[in-house]
């Protein structure tokens, strides 16, 4: 039987591949929460805006940035990243292309004709507020699904702040409360904005009365019947109701700030965001020294260097950990297949399949990259600890990582690791090389990458979008068959890609550590 999203990869384990005999550390299963993000202190500060449709989120951001709301319009499902620049520009980053598509930054400018929706649109504005932080507007929370929630959580944790906008006549859904609860577990500042609903601010209901007009169950501190009655502030009542609903599910956010938006200007929210950015910027800047220990100087190897079997142990460790990643990705692809079939039959149908599947593949790319980076760090730390007699300083680790990156290009298996896997309209997978192609996949690019291996990127080609959005291809059975074949090809290509990457990493790390053993010191 061919391997596929429902069959997975070979789950058997060869006892000879266990690295303990070689002295390298043996790690347990992958963490239960594979979407945990380790925030790099160099990540640029950003405020991620989220919320349900109909909450006037775009109008809130437009007033905050001092621009017409039409300038913030994006295709459905795309993220909008607003940054500071002296000249206003706008560009769309579309998977399948190495260069962004530019178009005018004014409100009347029409977007380029694209085969598919971009992952992100970048808007640069000469707005002083953007000197403090960038703004990332995300798709409506009621359209995200499981994969979209994971993508949003990744962006929020790396950005540092969440601006959640909800209307007065709306309520928090279970998915939104779950997402906010996940955010509350991290070091993220959360700001809530409540906007007027379609009918304005909700007013409180009058107290029940009897036939004579006397109030029935007045609270103990209420004024007597017929006496003066304090006016009820519908804005305060609405905000208090939303806050009570949130705290009943997420009590950790009792200190979160709430801002009712009465008019276009909201200086209190602006001041709070600037204050947060100043404190968070200082915290991130002080969390890492400018020059880490071990960045310079001689680093001798261990007085008693390991035997000749250390390289074999490194190879076994690399194969074992790569196999674990392939198994985890196979399980995730099986879950994607189930969710896609369910949506085809009961949800978005064939026309909504491209956006749904592309979002699932974006979340899969984040998962694969996070697991790859974590495993590479663990293998590198274990191998270097054996060569140099113990854990190395951060500066030494960075020097070894830089040397390994240089060494990747010297091996055929390490060439052109910057590449994107594109699902075609025929349920195949095409390869598009280039760092620009990988950059076009990111909804929130963040800091420049410093990990040893490039990102893993998977996306849908424009041909898929055109095919399934055509009225003549509205066949659920054909769509289900296409999804199964496409995800099977993605699994096969991802399995090859993970194996190729870890083999290239092993060879490059082996060369760096062998040179250190031959010369008695680290040459990087």
Relevant terms:
524 residues; alpha/beta; 9-stranded mixed β-sheet; 3-stranded mixed β-sheet; 11 helices; disordered N terminus
- Straight-line distance between termini: 47 Å
Task: Give the strand tally.
Answer: 12
Structural class: alpha/beta
Portion in strands: 5-15%
Order of SSEs: EHEEEEEHEHEHEHHHHEEHEHH
What does this structure look like?
- The protein has 524 residues and is α/β, with parallel strands linked by helices.
- The chain is 41% helix and 12% strand.
- The chain has eleven helices and twelve strands.
- The strands form two sheets. A nine-stranded mixed β-sheet has the order 4-3-5-2-6-1-7-8-9, sandwiched between helices.
- The radius of gyration is 27 Å and the shape is globular.
Write the layout of secondary structure elements.
Layout: E1 46-50, H1 57-65, E2 79-84, E3 89-93, E4 101-103, E5 120-125, E6 134-137, H2 145-159, E7 160-167, H3 174-184, E8 189-195, H4 234-249, E9 257-260, H5 267-286, H6 310-346, H7 353-388, H8 394-408, E10 419-423, E11 429-433, H9 435-439, E12 457-460, H10 462-468, H11 476-519
Helix pairs in contact: 2-3, 2-7, 6-7, 6-11, 7-11, 8-11
